[in-house]
Design goal:
Largest sheet: 5 strands, antiparallel
Structural class: alpha+beta
Number of helices: 13
Helix content: 40-55%
Bound molecules: adenosine-5'-diphosphate, 2-acetamido-2-deoxy-1-O-phosphono-alpha-D-glucopyranose, magnesium ion
Order of helices and strands: HEEEHHEEEHHHHEEEEHHHHHH
Radius of gyration: 20 Å
Strand content: 5-15%
Length: 365
């Protein structure tokens, strides 16, 4: 089936005028669709869901519609613009939340959020503050969501210790014969093996609360309002699941407070920007509105370090496995990404005291 035929399975308004690839995500394949009806243009986001990764699409879409319906009501209650403040799923002609092609490929569609944009790199401190505020607020708004109804779309997604076990298995198998060329990266992981279960151990001992979290808080998973510059809408809801606030905080720092791109090859450009880190702390804590516990606050730097270490380890695992998970755009792409993450972890270790001190500065906000 052609892409336009797949798009026609959805209740779009008007005639399809244009379809083009869009965005820079590593998982789904995203297109921007433009339609026209009586001179009026409309835009949609059309996505092929990565069913290698998200195998139960019914459950995935149930999570997304559950969370977006809930957020819409919360935003309305607060007198906010619910139409632009959360994703709106476009139904298929038969009323479903996604379309399954004869070959098993699955597609979904969202209304395009107009007059807003995503960033792949922070332009200024204010952007990052706004994204912290929006991700904090997202977690705050979902505090009352019935977490037990959420499906675990990727089990143990941020269980760093289990990710480490997977890494060890993949390393032992070394199916592509690449292990010999990445000795320093392997050693970097192994030297930090003991720390990896720190957060999950505390959560299992009920010392850290499970919350409804986003789990993939990259800067480009937030839409910023073109008019106001405010964080408008949290997108990419595939991994919304019960998790730790430290995952959301940590992953955002990993991506947004890095002075270099996630795949920068010149490692001397990689460092933790403490100014940006501070802005995110400020925004996130304000968005969470005092709901984080003392323990969570103390562990924010650890969240940043472990999410960065985990992500680097996942890139390294994928490199060793032959690039089967993340989309790559050149042969060593996953290795480049792994190296930036480890360089960032090393810089966090150097700046550890300052990271903790900066959190202390904002705990009363
Ligand atoms: P991935 O899981 O591959 O990262 P995303 O759901 O994040 O996919 O979408 C990829 C990109 O598409 C986003 O970074 C954003 O630029 C754009 N995008 C996604 N949903 C919307 C939307 N509803 N309106 C406008 N742009 C969107
Ligand atoms: C993937 O979908 P995207 O590009 O926002 C990945 C995240 C990683 C991120 C690294 C479902 O996110 O966990 O942190 O790449 N998403 C999934 O850039 O694995
Ligand atoms: Mg994304």
């Amino acid at each position: 089936m052609e892409i336009r035929d797949q798009i026609r399975q959805f209740a779009v308004e008007g005639e399809i005028k244009d379809v083009r690839e869009y965005g820079s995500g590593h998982i789904n394949s995203t297109s921007l669709v433009e339609t026209e009806q009586m001179g009026k243009r409309r835009r949609y986001i059309f996505q092929r869901i990565n069913t290698q990764i998200f195998q139960n699409v019914d459950q995935l879409m149930e999570n997304i519609t559950g969370v977006t319906d809930y957020l819409r009501q919360e935003l309305l209650r607060q007198g906010k613009d619910a139409a632009r403040g959360t994703l709106q799923v476009v139904l298929t002609l038969s009323g479903g939340h996604y379309f399954r092609d004869q070959d098993g490929s699955c597609y979904r569609m969202y209304d395009f959020i107009e007059d807003a944009f995503c960033l792949d790199a922070v332009r200024n401190a204010e952007d990052f503050y706004q994204s912290g505020l929006a991700f904090g607020n997202f977690q705050y708004l979902l505090a009352g969501y019935p977490a037990h109804t959420l499906h675990e779309t990727i089990p143990d997604f941020h269980h760093t210790g289990k990710r480490y076990q997977t890494f060890c298995r993949v390393l032992a198998a070394d199916v592509k014969g690449r292990a010999a060329s990445v000795g320093p990266e392997i050693a970097f992981v192994q030297q930090r093996a003991k720390e990896m279960t720190l957060l999950t151990d505390l959560q299992e001992a009920f010392e850290l609360p499970l919350r409804v979290t986003h789990n993939d808080t990259k800067l480009n998973n937030i839409m910023i309002d073109r008019q106001t510059g405010e964080g408008l809408c949290v997108i990419d809801l595939d991994t919304v699941m019960p998790g730790l606030s430290l995952y959301d905080f940590g992953d955002a720092i990993r991506f947004g407070a890095n002075t270099a791109a996630e795949d920068e090859q010149e490692l001397s450009k990689v460092s933790l920007d403490l100014g940006l880190y501070e802005q995110y702390v400020k925004g996130y804590l304000r968005g969470c509105q005092g709901s984080l516990t003392k323990r969570e606050l103390e562990l924010l730097p650890m969240g940043a370090k472990l999410m960065t270490l985990e992500c680097g380890m996942r890139f390294l695992t994928d490199y060793l496995e032959g690039d089967v998970y993340f989309k790559i755009h050149h042969p060593n792409h996953n290795l480049d990404r792994c190296r930036t993450q480890f360089a960032l972890v090393a810089d966090m270790e150097r700046k550890w005291e300052q990271m903790a001190e900066l959190v202390g500065r904002y705990v009363t906000c």
